[in-house]
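Progress report, Aim 2. The chain analyzed during this reporting quarter is listed below.
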Amino acid sequence: MSPSPPPAPATDEARAEEEEILLRLPPDDPGCLFRASVVCKAWRSLLTSSNFGSRYRKLHRIPPLLGFFQNHDTVRVWFEPSSPTSPFLPMHPDHRELFVLDCRHGLVLLRTPINNEREAAESLIVWDPIGRRQWEFPPPEFAAKILYDNAVVLCAADGCNHLDCHGGRFLVVYVGTEYSFANASVFSSETRAWSPVASCIPHEPNLEIAGFQPKVLVGNVLYFNCILGSIILRFDYIRLELSIVHGPDISMPETPTSYILKTEDGVLGCAIKQESSLRLWSMDTAPDGSVAWTQGRDIELGMSLVKHNVIGFADGIGVFYLRTDSGIFTVDFNSGRVKNTHPIIGFNAIPYTSFYTPDQVRAITLPSTMASSSESENVEAAQDEEGDRWEEVGNGEEEGGQLEDQASQELFINGSKAFEERKFVSSVDFLCRSLELRVAHHGKLSPKCSDTYYRYGWALLRKAQARITSNLYQLIDLDLAWKMLHVARVILEKSPGSTREKVKIFVALAKVSMQRDFGCSSFVDFLNSVLETNRYV
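Predicted structure tokens for the chain:
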């Protein structure tokens, strides 16, 4: 029997039709493009080309939500993807305790330290997780004299449409308050210097800028909410003018909780919390600079969402995000529709929006002028340094003779013993303290921590399965188990000869996924474990 002839090469018309189909894959699940890129060489060549990536971003126009950055007690800077099949799982390689301040234009702004949330930043870091670059620099001098601060990172490239602004020029706006005054300054990556300080003195006492609420950019003006009253700080970062505006005048027995956001019309808006609903307002600015607020619609959230916080909004699509005890919800400005998008548990969650396409991974943008300065750090170099250190310590297996910290090892042994005895609460406690010591001693991405992350995650899973605590605490344990196992996975992916350990982690991730009702994610993790097992066999 003669062999079948090879398939005829695709015609130009067929290739054009394939490209049009691939261009319409949804950007909010970047895994679609990456999975398509491994179908065949022709598709891989197409999807990793800069021409396709540029067309794809221009067609979809609005950068999608890729996930949320969290300031987590254990893993510090943690990214939770919005899609369970997303290949975008960035992890900052720095060993220091960092705190996420802002995400905008594909960039992440971090600061250190976080020992006290009211301390001024010792240093600021702009991180491009897609371009794998970071730049570090000190805050302005007045940071040492203020009690409360907040900051924003902005793309500063001329004429940029913010569809693919990775590695270009940026600005950082830093604002601080100290009860009786407020200061602001702008850092430029081009000049590597801070601007002159803009100041204002409010008539109201106790001026305290809010650190965990959205910051709103309207044109060249940034708005920052304050804790007390209806005070909003207004900063024009081009003219360097800092002033105060007041939110809507609401007659209520108690001062209402309010959040600033950007409306679907592109102006400053305000959401006022009223029991189980949100009342929306929009601000109009007259030519003389005076402002007036116009009341909009009320959005009914339901009694189940009484405890909520507005954590961000999406420019161009008319939605904002709520964090509740049940997870993250989106609220549509026009329809008022409320939708549960992600079961994130935690106090802080900062939305991260950007395109993530195969061409960006293949060809990383060259760094800006800041990258060559002595104050800058390159994330790729940091990752390489991690890799060198990993080779020195071996494959990351954690036997007693390899551990330098005796207290951590004793806690590790006690936690493992408690797990075998099905004392999951004690096991979680021992392994948590062991992990804290090891991370402090070796760094959060050291292979010497991988097995502790894995066993801690597994103990959290079994504790949740045992139903020892309430449903809410079971969800919290499952959420933390998911994070611990993913950190272990990230560490082992850079360690040679760790296939058996990877299989164990993928199986554990699949079990956690099933407990969290993430069927799709569970299937993906199970498939990964099967692939790894086949490779091992």
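Residues 114-118, 363-403, 518-523, 529-537 have pLDDT under 50 and may be disordered. The first strand starts at residue 65 and ends at 72. These observations will guide the mutagenesis work planned for the next reporting period.
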